[in-house]
Write a structure and sequence with these properties.
180 residues, mainly alpha, Butyryl-CoA Dehydrogenase, subunit A, domain 3, 3-stranded antiparallel beta sheet, 8 helices
Length: 180
């Protein structure tokens, strides 16, 4: 598989994983006393994974149009964005006062004994961050082998040097059909 395609797939996987981390449960709180669990999704806890995924997506799209040096720079930026996503996934664990700031209803309950359980969202954010780091490293290491955007639209030098097109016009002028 070409490195460009692999970077695209890794970025798409990271976008999906980081996007899912926004909608899945990051932490749930059981306040006890017969109350219903309060569930906090990833987007209510931190908006960082989604913002990082979108920034990385833009950087990878721009690499398609950039030269080698800018590709390497953008690849390094994607590595940094992925590392930040990994750090957010590992370090963001809200405590009682922060959760009560998000939901004021919990402020009187969180002073008492509560049970917090983690959800799957940080794991999705961690996977997305790792995929971004891999995509960025692959971009930095293989940027010199990527085709530039203008090469896709240029003629083949071997075909441009031949007189094949001129031969067809001469055949038409002679009354022959060159397509046969």
């Amino acid at each position: 598989m070409k490195p460009q395609r692999l970077v695209d797939l890794l970025t798409l996987a990271a976008l999906v994983l980081l996007g899912l981390s926004a909608y899945l449960t990051w932490v749930s709180v059981n306040p006890g006393n017969g109350r219903v669990d309060e569930v906090f999704n990833g987007y209510s806890i931190t908006k960082a994974p989604v913002a990082l995924a979108l920034a990385a997506l833009v950087a990878v799209v721009v690499t398609k149009l950039a030269g080698t040096a800018l590709r390497r720079l953008l690849g390094a930026l994607v590595v940094v964005l992925g590392a930040i996503a990994v750090a957010v996934a590992l370090l963001v664990r809200p405590d009682g006062p922060e959760l009560s700031r998000l939901r004021p209803v919990l402020s009187d309950v969180l002073a008492d004994q509560v049970v917090q359980t983690g959800g799957p969202a940080p794991w999705f954010a961690l996977g997305g961050g790792i995929a971004l780091v891999a995509a960025g490293l692959l971009t930095v290491l293989t940027a010199h082998r990527w085709r530039s955007a203008t090469q896709r639209y240029e003629r083949d030098p071997a075909a441009a040097g031949s007189d094949h097109g001129a031969d067809q016009w001469k055949a038409i002028d002679a009354g022959e059909d060159p397509t046969l």
